[in-house]
Amino acid sequence: MRVFHDGETLHFQIAGSKNVGKGRRITIAWTEAQPDCVISNLDDFSKLNEQSGHAYRPLGNNWYLYIAK
């Protein structure tokens, strides 16, 4: 759908709204830095509190599946 930078993280958006804050967004992300809010499986995303609003699932070699509310 689109590619964008968020700080040092490069996102390849594959699903969701193109507008920030408008529904969920799923991206494949690459970053050298350790992201905040890393989860081990996608079921943990539904258990997150409303304040975090996003999570990264490691895919390997600095690649992550990113999901945001």
Structure description:
This protein has about 70 residues and is mostly beta strands. It has one domain. Helix content is about 0%, strand content about 45%. It has a five-stranded antiparallel beta sheet with strand order 1-2-3-5-4, with no helix packed on it. Strand 2 and strand 3 (about 25-30) form a beta hairpin.
List the helices and strands and how they pair.
Layout: E1 2-6, E2 9-16, E3 25-30, E4 54-60, E5 63-68
Antiparallel strand pairs: 1-2, 2-3, 3-5, 4-5
Largest sheet report: 5 strands, antiparallel
Please give the oligomerization state of what you see. Answer: single chain
Structural class: mainly beta
Helix content, binned percent: under 10%
Number of helices: 0
**How many DSSP E strands?**
5
End-to-end Cα distance: 17 Å
Mean pLDDT: 86
What is the chain-wise order of helices and strands? EEEEE
Q: Which residues sit in consecutive blocks of at least 5 with pLDDT less than 50?
A: none
In percent terms, what proportion of residues is strand? over 45%
Overall 3D shape: globular
How many structural domains can be distinguished in the coordinates?
Answer: 1
Output the strand order for the largest sheet: 1-2-3-5-4
What is the CA-atom radius of gyration, in angstroms? 11 Å
Question: What's the short version?
Answer:
With 69 residues, the chain is mainly beta. It has strands at residues 2-6, 9-16, 25-30, 54-60, 63-68.
Distinctive features:
0% helix; 69 residues; five-stranded antiparallel beta sheet
